[in-house]
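Weekly sync, protein design subgroup
Attendees: M.S., D.O., the rotation student, P.L. (late)

Item 1: inverse folding check
M.S. brought a backbone from last month's batch and wanted to see whether the design step gives back something sensible before we order anything. D.O. pointed out we never logged the input encoding, so this time it goes straight into the notes. Structure tokens as presented (147 positions):
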């Protein structure tokens, strides 16, 4: 059903959530986003429209349009599966635009694993070693940029 979602409206909903979370009781005003698969692509797109997003973590998510990358203010952590040729086709171009814009980002490609390697409900795709490593990096990254 997610293929029927309007990307612009979904990003606007994410922005509304960010606005709420910035002011929520017990919050420190610094918000990050984590997404997997389609949600990883949403994190990348969200980063292009939200100047208040502090950190974005995308697991095997599609890259945003290159022309929108200069708008990114958030630090990004990008996890990719080594066997995911479709999504990985955009990594080099995304890296170049991020570097050219002086953006804060880290890219990790987990060799020998499939798209959705963090999904422990899929025995065919789940890779515990890669998932644990990526999750540890995610927690460390979020502590650095939103704690």
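Designed sequence read out in the meeting:
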């Amino acid at each position: 059903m997610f293929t029927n979602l309007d990307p612009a409206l979904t990003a606007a909903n994410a922005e509304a959530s960010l606005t709420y979370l910035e002011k929520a009781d017990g919050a420190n005003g610094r918000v990050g986003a984590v997404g997997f698969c389609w949600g990883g692509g949403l994190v990348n797109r969200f980063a292009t429209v939200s100047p208040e997003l502090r950190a974005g973590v995308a697991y095997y998510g599609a890259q945003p349009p290159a022309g929108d990358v200069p708008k990114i203010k958030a630090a990004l952590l990008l996890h990719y599966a080594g066997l995911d040729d479709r999504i990985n086709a955009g990594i080099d171009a995304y890296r170049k635009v991020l570097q050219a814009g002086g953006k804060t980002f880290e890219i990790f490609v987990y060799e020998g694993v499939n798209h959705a390697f963090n999904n422990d409900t899929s025995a065919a795709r789940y890779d515990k070693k890669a998932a644990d490593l990526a999750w540890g990096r995610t927690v460390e990254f979020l502590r650095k940029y939103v704690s």
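Discussion: The two ends are 34 Å apart (CA to CA). The chain has a mean pLDDT of 96.
Action: P.L. to compare against the previous round before Friday.
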